[in-house]
Amino acid sequence: MRxxxxxxxxxxxxGPGWMCYRLGHALRRRSGLLRKATPAVPWDxxxxxxxxxxxxxxxxxxxxxxxxACLKEAEAILAGRFRLFSRREAEAGFPxxxxxxxxxxxxxxMAGQAPLRHWTEISDAGRGDIKGVWELSRFPxxxxxxxxxxxxxxxxxxxxxxxxxxxxxxxxxxxLGPNWMCGQEAxxxxxxxxxxxxxxxxxxxxxxxxxxxxxxxxxxxxAHLDYALSQKNNHGISECVGLITAGLxxxxxxxxxxxxxxxxxxxxxxxxxxxxxxxxxxxxxxxxHRVLLHDLCWCRRRMEQAGRTIPPWxxxxxxxGLEHLLQVADPQTGRAPLYGSNDGANVLxxxxxxxxxxxxxxxxTSALFQGKxxxxxxxxxxxxxxLSEDWQALPRTPWVPQPRWHAxxxxxxxxxxxxxxxxxxxxxxxxxxxxxxxxxxxxxxxEGQAVASDGGxxxxxxxxxxxxxxxxxxxxxxxxxxxxxMKKFSRFLYLPWPKGTVSSLDGGGLRYSHDGYANAxxxxxxxxxxxxxxxxxVRDLVRGAAGHQLTWSWRLADLPWxxxxxxxxxxxxxxxxxxxxxxxxxxxxxxxxxxxxTAHGWWSPYYAxxxxxxxxxxxVGATGDIEWTTEFLPEN
Length: 636
Hints:
Blueprint: H1 4-14, H2 16-31, H3 33-37, H4 69-78, E1 81-84, E2 88-91, H5 131-137, H6 142-152, H7 155-171, H8 183-197, H9 204-223, H10 225-230, H11 234-248, H12 254-274, H13 286-305, H14 312-328, H15 359-370, E3 373-374, H16 381-387, E4 396-397, E5 404-407, E6 412-417, E7 420-425, E8 442-446, E9 449-452, E10 478-480, E11 487-490, E12 493-495, E13 500-504, E14 510-514, E15 523-530, E16 536-543, E17 549-556, E18 562-564, E19 568-573, E20 576-583, E21 588-593, E22 602-603, E23 611-612, E24 614-621, E25 626-634
Parallel strand pairs: 3-4
Antiparallel strand pairs: 1-2, 5-6, 6-7, 7-8, 8-9, 10-17, 11-12, 13-14, 14-15, 15-16, 16-25, 17-24, 18-19, 19-20, 20-25, 21-24, 22-23
């Protein structure tokens, strides 16, 4: 049962306007008003104005370095094997069961809910994670089919797309079933469909259903846009882009013209509030930052093709977001600290690279909004080639992150020291709801290796223990008496929101703190500094610690770490050697790999998947104030 103080925190942080809106929304849903706004009708009752597509005169010239993984994925799709969340492969059949939860055993649907009920009558709280139902209905499979056909011209890939599209429409009449529950899902499905149909030939027999699909999608998004906007995150931005996309495809339709105007108006407002001056995004998440940039790249390209003037505010927001990502991503690998929620989203998967490689979205955004390419050539260039004209003529610019960078509004700090880097989550004030309890979390990367890192998210709705990865005790931070500085109020909301302090130190260091344990009389201040040989030093001062149990947690890479007399761990692997040592008070230390009962010793780099890691837990029974030092040292 929730404590009354949590409701007071909800009112304080989210505001009375938000609470009144959510109450009104619940009443609209229960009363049937939302159902009336999005009526369930057969496809032949959806209007069909003229559809204006921007057919590609030619596909990008393929470079040998871009690889052929998309060919293998396209062949797998024809055999009924579909990739989920840009990672795992599911034996789903061809065509698949669009209402089956692909994350659970065969036959696992929406907990007995009939798939043809109106979307307002379906809950996502059934057995399993609703994202396992939605994933294939985002149409992520359209992108490898298009890219594979571009490589070898095989007509089977276009035929496969139309077979899947036709079957989806038959199984998902407008506003019926779980795949109409979310306007953002409808947006991503529309984006994938438009990308495909403008690359393939459009059979005349499919033009009418395609037009009605665009209209039904626009109607669904428009009727519920206010809910998406109220969330103040990727949903509002994505659905504005979806509304603009649908409107531009229907140039003679007066209702569609209103969609464009409404989408642009709200997108302007959302970007001004949610993309901070330092380029941080309100969602406090690396993966959702990519979603943001994919949305804005798509929006710009659609407007360019329609001959529309690109608003300055769209350019400015995209460039702010790009500059932020250029700092946190490693130019050599495209990897970045996996902070915040990770839902497996890769809206425009247009390169044969790993899901965690951010170079494709960086290259795409830089080409579209800055007229240049970043860093060295590689398969990530393909993402820019699909959405930008004359990409090969664009100048290529060196990509060098700043040695010391602090995005104060976003709460991100990064310090490079030779080949090592330290990343810190240090918001002083949350303007928007935090994604995880990651205050004062520290990532340590040495020689390109993530030695100590964030654990990811695992799943948004699972009974498995790995959903705890968002808690403070599973971040690289201090916890006191096993308490959390903020607790989950609901699936996507932590309360209350701690406040922090940040100040720069001579020599490149940073001092930071938060008040998450102030109600226990404990005040924790930390400093991070560059160390020797490209390493780092973390110094902690804990006042009011007497009588409390302090635990420093570090999630280490899955390497054969060895404990050395309760004062250090050491590893030698793949020609590299690292040492972590600590001092300051008598302590007990534990190394845990892939623990069988907790989330310690695990991490989740991909959605709904965990991999072994090593948890280092340092525990101190404090008898007074504690000064604690932890050093991360490469020894190569």
